[in-house]
Write a structure and sequence with these properties.
Oligomer: heterodimer
CATH architecture of chain B: Alpha-Beta Complex
Radius of gyration of chain B: 19 Å
Structural class of chain A: alpha/beta
Largest sheet of chain A: 8 strands, mixed
Largest interface: A-B, 32 and 25 residues
CATH class of the largest domain in chain A: Alpha Beta
Number of domains of chain B: 1
CATH architecture of the largest domain in chain A: 3-Layer(aba) Sandwich
Radius of gyration of chain A: 21 Å
Structural class of chain B: alpha/beta
Shape of chain A: globular
Order of helices and strands of chain A: EHEEEHEEHHEHEHEHEHEHEHEEHHH
Strand order of the largest sheet of chain A: 3-4-2-1-5-6-7-8
Strand order of the largest sheet of chain B: 5-4-3-6-10-8-11-7
Largest sheet of chain B: 8 strands, mixed
Helix content of chain A: 25-40%
CATH topology of chain B: Spore Coat Polysaccharide Biosynthesis Protein SpsA, Chain A
Distance between the termini of chain A: 15 Å
Number of domains of chain A: 2
Strand content of chain B: 15-25%
Distance between the termini of chain B: 21 Å
Shape of chain B: globular
């Protein structure tokens, strides 16, 4: 006897062709949410855009696909409609991204906000007229109104909603992202040569994550500080980006580019002195940031999105404007000041305990048990 | 006969990673180099010597990591690759490794493999590790990228977790049957590695006509005419696109000041 069947709608856990997993913080969140639901006795299935394939992401947990080709006003009504037709044999529903609950939300449902995603410079250009922008806001309001609860990973989103749609804010529940502190503690650090300082950018190679700024800063500082290693760990969304990055590191001694499974990224973070999270937009309470904190890294993070929920400037990290100059200045400061690195890293590690996985599970359990009954 | 248990500090342990390969007249090609390369990160190697007549057996016998070699008096590869791959798989299965790496005698991983692969093998959530294969073209400095030669969007299953007692099958194909059993190609638990594989099978122009003739004959027999990929082997120089290989990546994670542990 199960507690019921939960269908989770997302955009692209995998590439829509099914041949390339897009593995980042949101996907890790999805796996942990699936495990939590399974532990509570639910059956779980995922639904995303695709042409008919299906894959198993955990034993008994399938990703199924639905057709969708258009995304007007940053919503995907085709996907929403197909989900409503195909998932009718389920009992409970989760919209893994808020806008997927437009125009209709199944009953009962929960949606998840992973942070403000409309703060990148190009967003405004995607909605050319005031009428378009009004239509996007109208659709977002509908998407946020349908589910019984909206779980937000950060307070930046909640504050934006409070200012924009005051009546909706009572639907929100703040559950910041998590880090598995016990797993981090148990991870054996990767080796590091004596006297080396390790700087890590543990993010995908995308502009909103600040890859171009970090590359520029590494170009400058790798020449200035030969004892510093610069590690870029993460996949690009296109093969060309990965190819270019491999070529770039080959021209710059002391720089490294690779990607690893999440467990192995922890090994590297455990031997890292400085982790850099220079996001420019579309950021929540970054799992990469939390992992770096739990690993005891001194973190340099931008003020964007939910990072302010994690880092207090000068106490457990440095908070910067995500520009080349600010990143360069703060990184050079930490390279030169070992005492400050150690101080920030120690406090970051303590702070991470407030975001421990069991805390996140308990918060989510409470929401699930109040809605899925 | 190979043993399923290997000695590590006097304790018998199951081998973690075994390399398997078919070889056919490889003595004067890349075999010695490849065996030395593999010996850096595998526990043992098994091979099927497919009718070699050039002394390939001597190269195999000199490799300290070689666990077992089966020799075919007559080459099976020209008749049916599926049979040869099945023969190799059966041999490898006798060692009962935790993982198998299926390499050709003209392929090498980039240097990062010695660090990254042992980490990947620790994980419980993959069945298959896939890699990009770069076909070096008429040199050991440039690889081919036009058409289906482009390595960037293409990952191939090379390292697989072995399950004793499970049935495995190769498709009944004379060529292109794949180097790991069909079951792995349907597995959803795949990790796509950033480690690149260098394939030198096309690095020597002297090999091209022989290989072209082999695949052309097979294509005509199986499909009725040569496939575009086979025809592209002899494409005019002007239509071949290559890119320079950027240096092998190595990662600075050697265990400094600590003993290396047994696999």
């Amino acid at each position: 006897m199960t507690s019921g069947r939960v269908a989770i709608l997302t955009t692209n856990h995998f590439h829509p062709a099914g041949d390339r997993i897009i593995y980042g913080g949101a996907e890790k969140y999805g796996l942990e949410l699936s495990r939590l639901l399974l532990s509570l006795g639910f059956e779980v299935s995922w639904w995303q855009i695709g042409d008919g394939w299906q894959k198993e992401i955990l034993p008994g947990v399938l990703v199924r696909t639905l057709p969708a080709t258009e995304a007007p006003f940053h919503t995907i009504p085709q996907l929403n409609q197909a989900f409503h037709e195909r998932a009718v044999d389920h009992d409970y529903f989760i919209y893994f991204v808020t806008f997927l609950a437009y125009p209709q939300a199944m009953e009962p449902s929960i949606s998840i906000s992973h942070g403000v995603y409309w703060d990148y410079p190009g967003f405004d250009a995607t909605l050319n007229t005031e009428a378009d922008r009004a239509e996007w806001r109208r659709r977002l309001w509908i998407a946020l109104s349908g589910p019984r609860r909206v779980v937000s990973v950060d307070t930046a989103t909640i504050n934006w909603v409070a200012a924009t749609f005051p009546g909706l804010v009572s639907r929100f529940e703040y559950i910041p992202n998590f880090v598995d502190v016990a797993a981090v503690d148990a991870t054996e650090p990767a080796g590091k040569a004596p006297g080396r300082i390790r700087v890590v950018y543990p993010r995908r190679l995308t502009t909103v994550r600040g890859i171009n700024e970090m590359v520029r800063v590494a170009e400058v500082l790798s020449g200035r500080y030969p004892e510093v290693e610069f590690h870029f760990i993460g996949r690009g969304h296109q093969d060309e980006v990965e190819k270019d990055m491999m070529a770039w590191v080959s021209r710059h001694p002391g720089t490294y580019y690779y990607w690893l499974p999440p467990e192995d990224v922890l090994r590297v973070l455990k031997s890292t002195d400085i982790a850099v999270i220079p996001s420019k937009a579309a950021e929540g309470t970054s799992l990469a940031c939390l992992e770096a904190m739990a690993a005891g890294c001194a973190v340099i993070a931008s003020w964007v999105g939910g990072l302010g929920n994690l880092i207090i400037d000068g106490y457990n990290g440095l908070v910067i404007k995500p520009t080349v100059q600010d990143l360069l200045t703060s990184l050079e400061r930490l390279i030169r000041d070992e005492d400050l690195r150690v101080f920030l890293g120690r406090n970051a590690r303590e702070t991470a305990r407030a975001f421990d996985l069991p805390v996140w599970q308990q918060r989510w359990r409470k929401v699930i048990q109040s809605i899925f009954v | 006969m190979p043993t399923a248990l290997m000695s590590c500090g006097g304790i018998k342990v199951r081998p973690r990673l075994i390399a398997m390969m078919t070889v056919g007249n490889e003595r004067y090609r890349y075999l010695a180099e490849v065996l030395e390369h593999l010996s850096d990160f595998v526990d043992g190697i098994v091979a099927v010597d497919d009718g070699s007549t050039d002394g390939t057996a001597d190269v195999l016998s000199r490799c300290p990591r070689m666990l077992d070699v089966v020799r075919n008096a007559e080459p099976v590869m020209p008749v049916n690759e599926g049979l040869l791959r099945t023969q190799l798989w059966t041999l490898a299965a006798t060692v009962k490794p935790a993982w198998l790496v299926a390499v050709d005698a003209d392929e090498m991983f980039e240097d990062a493999v010695a660090i990254e692969l042992p980490w990947l093998l620790d994980h419980g959530d993959f069945e298959v590790i896939s890699f990009r294969i770069f076909d070096f073209w008429q040199s050991r400095t440039h690889y081919r990228v036009d058409g289906a030669w482009n390595p960037w969007p293409r990952f191939s299953p090379i390292v697989v977790r072995y399950h004793e007692g499970q049935d495995y099958h190769f498709p009944a194909l004379e060529i292109h049957c794949g180097r790991v059993p069909w079951e792995y190609r349907r597995s959803p638990f795949v990790y796509y590695s950033d480690i690149r594989i260098k394939h030198f099978g096309w690095a020597n122009p002297a090999d091209h006509l022989r290989k072209y003739s082999f695949y052309r004959e097979k294509d005509i027999k199986i499909y009725g005419s040569p496939t575009p990929q086979t025809e592209s082997i002899m494409a005019p120089v002007a239509s071949v696109r290559v890119e320079p290989w950027v240096q092998d990546r190595s990662l600075p994670f050697r265990s400094f000041g600590r003993e290396e542990t047994c696999l």
